[in-house]
Amino acid sequence: MTYTAFAQSLIEQRTDLTAKLAPAQVRVLQGLLAGSTETEIAAEIGRSRHTVHDHTKAIYGRLNVRNRCELVLRFVNLSAP
Fold first, then answer.
1. Which fold has domain 26-81?
2. Residues 21, 62: contact at Cβ < 8 Å?
3. What are the residue boundaries of the structural domains of the chain, listed by start?
4. Using 50, 70 and 90 to split pLDDT, how confident is the model at 78?
5. Helices and strands (H, E) in the chain, number of each type
6. For 64, left (φ over 0), alpha (ψ -120 to 50), or beta?
7. Considering the entire predicted model, what is its pTM?
8. From CA 34, how far away is CA 27, in angstroms rounded?
9. Over 90: is that where the pLDDT of 80 sits?
C-alpha cells in the first residue's frame, strides 16, 4: 500500500474528523498524512505553497493539534477523541 493510499484510508475511517474540514482542506490533509511537503502538496493540487500553508494552519486549528505529528496520531489512534 502506498503512503497516499494509506492516507486516504485514514481519512475514510475518520469521518468524524474530516467532517470538520472543507473539501480543499481534505485534499491538503491527504498530502500531510502521506508525508508530502507543503510544496509537493501545492504542486499536486495546483495551488500556491502559501495557500497550502494556510489550509494546514486551518486544519490544525479545527482538529485541535499543534503539529503534523499530533495530526497523524489523531488519525492513527482510532480511540482518540
1. Arc Repressor Mutant, subunit A (1.10.10)
2. yes
3. 26-81
4. low
5. 6, 0
6. left
7. 0.90
8. 11
9. no
Backbone angles phi, psi at 37, to 5 degrees: -80, 165
Q: Which residue has the cell 503534523?
A: 68
Residues 6+ apart with CB under 8 A from 49: 38, 39, 42
**d(C-alpha 78, C-alpha 15), whole Å:** 11
Question: Would you tell me how many other CB atoms lie within 10 Å of the CB of residue 62?
Answer: 13
pLDDT digits (tens, 9 = 90+) for 21-66: 999 999 999 999 999 999 999 999 999 999 999 999 999 999 999 9
Q: At 77, which amino acid appears?
A: N
